[in-house]
Structures are given as structure tokens and as C-alpha cells.
Amino acid sequence: MRVDIWYSFLPSNTTIFAESGYVAYTGVGNPTNIIPSVAGQKHYRPQMRFTVQAAGKTDVGRVRANNEDNFGYDVDCQVFVLCDGMGGEAAGEIASSLTVNKILAYFRDGRFPVEAQPEDEDLPESARLLRSAIRVANQAVYKEASANPEHTGMGTTVVAVLFGEDSFAVAHLGDSRLYRVRGDAIEQLTNDHSVVMEQVRRGLLTIEEAGRSQMQNLITRALGLRESVEPELGSHPVHAGDLLLLCSDGFSRFVPEKKTLELLAQSKDLQQCCDSLVEAAKELGSDDNITCVLVRVLAES
Prior knowledge:
By secondary structure, the chain is an alpha+beta fold. 27% of the residues lie in helices and 27% in strands.
């Protein structure tokens, strides 16, 4: 993603699959940063009644020269992250990679410093943990950009999911999305932090007009551009059979929800589904990097 960040609306070709262990992969070429679980290492262990499967795929697409998308997950910790970087040269790749790795490391390290806020009384622990992990990642990206002039202005979107006992939390910044498929219905669970979607929410544009706008790539919130950041948080009940889709805008801007449902119905294999989703985005004219992560909630464990 190569975009400008607008603050005028601010409110104040590689496949990876794992059913256990830690996965994090960046860019194109040989996967060099797939890190196995280490015996005796501390992990965040959610008290969850369900088990999950996950798969993901990132693709540079047909237009970009490099891949600034990143994703990673740890099925043991039940945390899933997708980022879409921005910045000159390779800065977007650095920002998105650093963010994915910092968030996953936060839960793998087993130490969870959480900043309490007055409004946190009704906020689930999983949401507070995600917020803290994103703040840690933000500090790392901001520090890297401040220390290296060639990385000035780098940042990334982020959408992250963390499961709890009978629900999951989502935290996001930017226009990377989370969808939930339940039965034959698909629902977008995140609100894009973008100029056009803010205009839609204000009644200034219709969804159809937003889809044709030349400003679709202009986002209003991102990680790493400021010293502090406040992600949007949500919490949702989880049911056996739920399927979650995390995706970058290289997918969501080009593949309609109806088409997404059709593709997901064609196979029970999550990796095949990821492959199909990415190929569909390319065939439908995506001009960006494309990344999809699927998480399936299985029966009670």
C-alpha cells in the first residue's frame, strides 16, 4: 500500500499453513522467519472452549514490484495478525513485518503489561491485551522510523484477533478488514479508517460512490506514524463453525462479499480457500498486494 495519511477526519508468492505453533512470514521468496515453538517458552494461553485452525496466503499481485503486506499467527496463543505497510523504498515492508512480529512476541513472551484506562471496566481482557500489544508495536515502528531518515513516514495498517473463553477480540487501524462467516451469511466486523468510508458514514457518499472513488487508498489511522496510537476495539461471541477472514484492501476492494462466500463454500480446506481468494482478487483486477488469513472455529475442546 502506498498512500497518504489524511487526518482531517480523525475522531479527536508464498503460502503458509499451520494448525499449531507459530507462523510469521513476510514478502516474497523463501520463508525465512517461520519460527517454531520453543520448549519451555512462556505463552499466552487463552481459556477457550474451542480449538481453531488457520491458514494464510500473501501475494505481491500483478502490479506492485514488492510486497508490503505481512501476516502471522500463533494457534497456541490464538492470536492472528495482518498488516499492510506503507512508506518509501522498503519502509512499508519493514513496518508491517515489525508490527506482526512485535504483536506475536508480546503474547509468546508471557509478560503482559496492560495499561488500564477508566473506560476499561466493561472491556474484555482479550481486547485490553490486544490494545497493549499494538501500542508496543507502534512504539517499535515509530522508533525505527525516527532513527532512520530513509524510513520517515513509514507505517502500517493492522487488524488483529485474539480469542478468549467464549468470544474473540478484534483491534484494528486503517482499512485492513475482519469478516465473520456464520452459516451462509458474511458480516464485516471492522470499520475502515479511510477518507471515503468516513464520508459514507457521514452520508456524503454512497457505498457505490465510495467504491468508485479515486481516494479509496487514503486512510485516516495507521500504526507507527505517531508516538502513541489508539486502535479501535471490538468483542464478539464465538460459535463452533465460525470462519474469520482477515484481509488487506488488495482483496476487499476487488472481491465482493457474495463472491467471497461462493469461494469459501467450494472447499473445506482452508489453504485451498486462501489460494482461491487471492487468485480471485487478481482476476478481478486488484492493483495491490493481496493477503488473506482464514481462522476456523472447531467444536468445543
